[in-house]
Amino acid sequence: MGIVYVLLPASLLLATLGVAAFVWAARSRQFDGVEVSGAKLLFERDEAPAAGEGRDANRGKQS
Amino acid sequence: MGLVGADSAADARCLHCKGPAPAGEAFCCTGCEAVYQALQGAGLQDWYRLREVDRDAIVGVAARPRDDRAYGYLDTDAYRQQHCRAAGGQGGYEAAWAVDGMTCVACAWLIEEVARKHDGVEEVRVDLLEQRMELRFGDGAPLGEIAKEIGRFGYAVALPGDATDPGAARRADLVDVGVAGALMGNTMLLVLPYYAGLDTGRFAILFGWLSMLLATVSLAVPGRIFLRNAWAATRMRMISLDVPIAIGLCAAWLYSLVQLLRGAYDQLYLDSLVMLVFSLRVGRFFQARTVERATARTRLLAASMPDLVHALRDGRWVEVAAEQIAVGETVRVDPGQRLPADGRLLRDTEVDLQVVSGEEAPRRMRAGDALPAGARAVDLAFEVEVEQPPPLFASPSLAAGTARRTPMLADRIGGIFTAVIIVAAAGGFAFWAAHGGLGAGLQVAMVVLIVACPCALGLATPTAVALAIADAARHGVLIREPSVIERLGALRSVVFDKTGTVTEGRPEVERSAWAGQGGADLVVIAALADVEATSRHPIARGVVRFLESYEREAGLHPRRQVPESVEVEAGSGIRGASRGLHVAARAAEGRTGDAILDAFVVAARRDGLSVVVLVRDDAAIGALGLRDALRADATEVVSALRGEGLHVELLSGDHPIAVAAVAARLQITAATGDVRPADKAARVEALQAQGPVAMVGDGQNDVLALEGASLAVTLAGATPSAIGASEVVLQSGGLGGIHWLLEKARQTRSTIRVTLAFAAIYNLFGVSWALSGTLTPLIAAVLMPLSSASVVAIAVALSRPPAANA
To answer: What is the domain extent for residue B667?
Structure first.
């Protein structure tokens, strides 16, 4: 049962990491405008075709 | 155009908006065609596919057409200095714009793409819910051009009425909810052995103190809001629902601490504490989001763009932002524009002073007269020498509407509740201290305080109110202040403004008469329309619409020419020359010299119409009677409100005869015309002596009355300051929204009462049990979430939209 002394802090540490990740995500606006981002994903493919051919050479902005 | 596909002519659909299109046409209107071409031209055809993903996600505010020139302000230094944030070091800025007209994901995507295409734009983020976009850009970014281009797609960009980032509060809330949830889960893990009846043996001390640690964090981080609110309320000698919540939370924490120190590790209330903090925070999170959804749109309505005016600099007229005008400069105010600063008029003209005095009719002013800021040019531009620095561009305050926040029923009950619980705890302490010793007395008192924590009260009311607000938003009624729902119950009178509120604010010709053998020469009609078209007066616009429809009926396609000369007549009309003819249109005064017309004028006046006499070469040729049509549902709403036993009153700055005519049609007995803004407010205040008054108005001249009324209601097309002063905005629902809201509020209030009754029964039960001295933490842990969950379930079930009513 002595393992509890290791596992308990370990699980709490994991939980802390999870919370920290969540706080970071929320603060860096990952949960903002979820409707738009969710749908946008479906259409990004058009701009960068999987084949990687130069089909869209005239599209998008070169930065 | 050859673009019609396989669709049969019978159900031709517009390629852009999918609305019905005339047979053989690809578009329903030229507007749709223009947007279609613009999208194709910009390589943004994906919009059509994207919009299918999420149609009608949000009912947008009707897009307002905007003068392209106004966007020039975005390119000025003043804009960068006063409305942008410096970001990222070398010349980078951040700015936020309110975007009107976004309805779905496709719109958001389109706006992002349009902005991103421009050089200098580093990052674009569009928030559909907030109806807002954020830009990060470098020095060269052509902001005016970007706004103009977005405008070309039918959206309108404006400066947000509120500079703070509305997302910040939401993100902070979300963090707190997440942290509270994690703390709850982990505490549950530590107390699980006690529920399972396991002997924790030597781990008891570890589990106990660890859960104490987690609960303390929960109380100090996500729970701090309850402590802070309770503290603030007590300091202001007010009792809110947060007071008993805070007492309960603190009692649970203190009691558990004492038990820990005594070594009674199975007598802790820490799991109840973390669960309470979590569920209360979740409830408040959803309530805040629902309110935010509604206010995002009202915030948009208050968004605006500073005016641009022409200033005479080095002998040339230069367009500058209104706030950059200096004292002593000469500015020119074009028709429809507002004077940005107090000044002295340089020549005779007509000025619309409605903003300042509430008068609707333009007033004749002479050169040398002092003009206050806000005066609007009516038909002709005027020049002014500026005498006072312009007031800084300030958006109407959105806080105004929340100033009269009143304690809600649940808060008031919270006060009684707190008193009862404290008495019960004290009684329990006294009884058990006498019969079982000091320790037993303390224990009972603490358990009473913990069990009585009004989680059910704290959750049920916000849930019911949030559901009502969400439902109202779906019905086109935006509520910005949750307490409106409860205040509606006490309402005694409703005061309406006339023009633009119960009427459309758009006079139309109702009847006409012609001198002599009826009808008029089409050239004269065209000339009259040319001259009238130069005026922005609502009556003149109604006359133009009528004359053009007359032309159309005669088989002509109306085409306006610029008149050879135009002159505004003092307060009564306009005259000018066009197509070689000298014509005039003026308000009827005295005799016209024609028997038919005279009879017409008398009859039309009697019926409350505004009469315009058409003149050619100083001889009256015809007369028009115009009426500002009532809103479609105005009569119905007024009689419905009266049926509710409310006193309905009409107050208007307009001429008493016109006001009386409208009142008669609406069957409103109390109607007053010629009321100035301050008098409107005074009248509302006087009515308030007999009970709460709802003011419904849309104009600048209603703002004072709106601010003074116990409930301020406005319409979507209202001026920004009227919206800023209002708590309820009637959008698509029109005036009917008031009656709908009254009913919804009644339903919500009865829901709240039922849930409060349930919460009271639960607490009675729990507290009696605690007083008996036999309530264990285990039972409390089951009882408390059960009461919250069932009360919320009742609120949700009862808040379902009422059955379709007529």
So the answer is: 476-502+631-744
Report yes or no on B375 lying in a domain. Answer: yes
Separation in Å, CA B186 to CA B260, B279, B343, B381, B429: 18, 15, 68, 71, 33
Q: What is the per-residue pLDDT for B616?
A: 87
| Burial class, B173, CB count within 10 angstroms (exposed 0-12 / middle 13-18 / buried 19+) | buried
CA B520 – CA B63 distance, rounded (Å): 39
Q: Which residue of A has its CA nearest to B133?
A: A33
Q: Of B134, B159, B184, which residue sits at a domain end?
A: B159
Please name the residue of chain B whose CA is at the shortest distance from the CA of residue A20. B179
CATH classification at residue B527: 3.40.1110.10
**Are B461 and B485 in the same domain?**
no
User: A55 at the B interface (CB within 8 A)?
Assistant: no
Same domain for B603 and B510: yes
Indicate the residue among B159, B178, B194 that finishes a domain: B159
Residue B49: list chain A partners with CB under 8 A.
43
Region B299-311: mean pLDDT is 66
Strands B363-365 and B330-333: unpaired
Determine the residue of chain B that is closest to A33 in CA distance.
Answer: B127
Task: Calculate mean pLDDT across residues B251-271.
Answer: 87
Number of domains composing chain B: 6
The verdict on residue B449 lying in a domain is yes
Contacts of A26 in chain B (CB under 8 A): 171, 174-175, 178
Asked if A11 lies within 8 A of B186 by C-beta distance, the reply is yes
* Residue B61 included in any domain: no
Q: Clarify whether residues B410 and B446 are in a common domain.
A: yes
Q: Where do the H-state alpha helices sit in B644-735?
A: 656-666, 677-688, 703-708, 720-724
B409-436 vs B438-451: helix crossing angle, rounded to 10: 160
Q: Name residues whose C-beta falls within 8 Å of residue B154's C-beta, 6 or more positions apart in sequence.
A: B31, B35, B63, B101
pLDDT at residue B359 is higher than 60: no
| Encoded tokens for B366 | 């002479």
Q: Which long-range contacts (CB under 8 A, 24 or more apart) does B42-48 make?
A: B42/B114, B42/B117, B43/A59, B44/B110, B44/B113, B44/B114, B46/A43, B46/A46, B46/B109, B47/B106, B47/B109, B47/B110, B48/B106
Whether B365 and B245 map to the same domain: the answer is no
Give the lowest-confidence range in A15-19, B547-551, B651-655: B651-655
Q: Are B54 and A35 inside 8 Å of each other by CB?
A: yes
Residues with Cβ < 8 Å from A52, sequence gap 6 or more? none
pLDDT digits (tens, 9 = 90+) for B188-232: 888 888 888 787 778 888 889 999 999 999 999 999 998 998 898
- Alpha-carbon gap, residue B443 to B152, rounded angstroms: 71
Nearest beta carbon to residue B117 from set A8, A39, A61: A61
Pair (B663, B653) in one structural domain:
yes
Tell me if ipTM is over 0.85: no
Contact: A36, B109; criterion CB under 8 Å: yes
Which residue did the predictor score with more confidence, A3 or B459? A3
Same domain, B710 and B738: yes
B253 falls in which pLDDT band (50, 70, 90)? very high
> What is the DSSP track for B460-525?
HHHHHHHHHHHHHHHTTEEES-TTHHHHGGG--EEEEEIIIIIEEEEEEEEEEEESSSSS--HHHH
Per DSSP, B390 falls in state: P
Of the two residues B424 and B376, the one the predictor is more confident about is B424
CB contact, 8 Å: A1 with chain B?
A: yes
